[in-house]
Amino acid sequence: MATTSATATLEINYINGAWLPGSSSTVTEIINPANQQSLAQIALSEEADTTRAIEAAEAAFPQWRTTPPQDRIQHMFKFRQLLLEHADEIARTTTQENGKTFAEARAELQRGIENVEVSCGMPILMQGYNLEDVARGIDEMMIRQPLGVTAAITPFNFPSMIPLWFLPYALTTGNTFILKPSERVPLTAKFIFELLEQTGLPKGVANLVVGAKPAVDTLLHHPSVRAISFVGSTPVARYIYGEGSMHGKRVQCQGGAKNYVVVMPDADMETTAKIVSDSAFGCAGQRCLAVSVALTVADSVKTFNEALLSIASKIKTGNGLEEGTTMGPVITQQSKQRILGLVEEGLNRGGDVLLDGRKYEGEGNFIAPTVISNIDASNPLMGSEIFGPVLTVNESQTLDEAIQVLSKSAYGNSAAIFTTSGAAARKFRYEVPTGNIGVNIGVAAPMAYFPFSGWRDSFMGVMHGQGKDAVEFYTDKKVVIERWPKEWSRKF
Ligand code: NAD
User: Fold this and answer.
1) What is the pLDDT of residues 283-313, one digit of tens each?
2) Quick one: DSSP state of residue 45?
3) Which of 139, 170, 320, 446 sits CB 3.0–4.6 Å from 95 for a disulfide?
4) Lowest-confidence segment of 202-206, 400-404, 483-487 by average pLDDT
5) Model confidence over 145-186: pLDDT tens digits?
6) CA 351, CA 280: separation in Å to the nearest integer?
7) Beta strands 13-15 and 18-20: pairing type?
8) Where would I find the H helices in 349-465?
9) 3-state secondary structure of 236
10) How far is the CA of 107 from the centre of ligand 1 (A)?
11) CATH class for domain 2-255+458-479?
């Protein structure tokens, strides 16, 4: 992404059923991170564009709210079909603007589609409950109602999946919705909205606004926005959680991460190393569930390291659309420099480089897999989110020690253990303070019908994204107590 003064811009926003460019006078280029080619020129949205989207969503709400859930889900059935029919084109767009491989882009879309599928159960999922005779002749019921205008602000690393953690649930519960995707990857969102438009949704029910801080601040401050979902880095999550809550909104914020994996000596080392390598270097390490530190317990270090280095050194870094590429570039040149800077800073404090991917040449933002070992607990590589293809391997003598080390992290997104011992696995599941746990799983990503959890600095809020939590997030509970004495009724 870069800003220039060129003029022709793409109609990137979808507001009240119409495609429009943003109103910024500066033009932003969307750059392919694999070759620095310009994919599109867009004008970002300002306060006025975002306000127009909020007003459109507000105007559409009364009609959409009264549309029966059974009718609302018909749009999602059509949407699912269209997403499947165009899956390869969407994935290609994602690879071009994000850099991940085509297979990774196709896989993330599939996880997004699963959320569309779950939302089709809304006529059952959003039912309340009731009880007759809470006192003699008095009945009580809880009904769920949509909130009104809702919005999601999403990051660059999963351009198709993360918007779909929110959009299907918001719409099928009867809310209207505004997506503010990452301004670094807006083309996937545009593609998805073009398909959504084909489902015949009424104008204003779903809106797309591509922008940066001015668009986000308008959503945070506008009184008509009732709920905001956010996924991105922890500092921005903290800002959005604070500001949104202060303005009376329901807010859920998924933040950054630092994920540990514990390798026990009884683990199957070949399989473990393969899965850990996929987790650390898949999507060039730009996954919020990517393993960043491997803690080898007791004598597992030697066999694990040998197997890991053998697998990681065979990863083929390159353009994600080219046959044979198994890892793409990182998102921007700035991101590459930030990652290299963090590695440099860490190595200045000690550590051995077991695999060095820092010297990767080429016009894209490439870093090849990098493995570092023997750093101490205070080294920034142990605590900071790197968000790039860098794995640190450190030794612990016991499982207790490994759990102690990973429990010091400020983050709590995910942790995993590799073992053949049920007792070790249970202890890990029981004691580790992260929201998602993997047992012999490298990327512990919850399925669409489970909440995408996250603790500590990785999550702010109460209800998570996906599944039943999403239904809870997008509805308000109303409790009704009724008395209808028969002597008040006319006799028939
Ligand atoms: P980011 O925080 O830079 O941006 C996320 C969104 O916030 C974007 O839409 C962006 O436009 C907006 N934004 C950025 N700065 C802002 C500001 N100052 N004020 C208002 N809005 C602002 O994150 P990113 O670089 O796009 O994504 C990577 C981060 O997302 C990583 O930290 C990663 O761990 C995290 N992430 C977390 C999860 C999770 O489930 N916990 C999932 C995916 C990504």
Assistant:
1) 999 999 999 999 999 999 999 999 999 999 9
2) B
3) 320
4) 483-487
5) 999 999 999 999 999 999 999 999 999 999 999 999 999 999
6) 18
7) antiparallel
8) 380-383, 399-407, 422-431
9) helix
10) 21
11) alpha beta
What's the pLDDT at 6?
Answer: 46
Homologous superfamily of the 259-439 domain (CATH): Aldehyde Dehydrogenase; Chain A, domain 2 (3.40.309.10)
Amino acid at 316: K
Q: Atom 42, ligand 1: which residue's CA is nearest?
A: 288
d(CA 154, CA 179): 8
| Amino acid making up residue 277 | S
- Would you list the domain boundaries of the chain? 2-255+458-479, 259-439
pLDDT tens digits for range 243-258: 999 999 999 999 999 9
Ligand 1 pocket (Cβ < 6 Å) reads 153-157, 180, 182-183, 212-213, 216, 231-233, 236, 239, 254-257, 288, 385, 387, 413, 452, 454, 458
Q: How many residues comprise the chain?
A: 492
- 154 C-alpha to ligand 1 centroid (Å): 6
Joined together, the tokens standing for residue 399 give 């499982």
**What is the C-alpha to C-alpha distance for residues 76 and 481, in angstroms, rounded to an integer?**
34
Rounded to the nearest whole angstrom, what is the distance from the C-alpha of residue 388 to the centroid of ligand 1? 15
* pLDDT above 90: residue 47: yes
Alpha carbon 40 to its chain's center: 24
Read off the pTM. Answer: 0.97
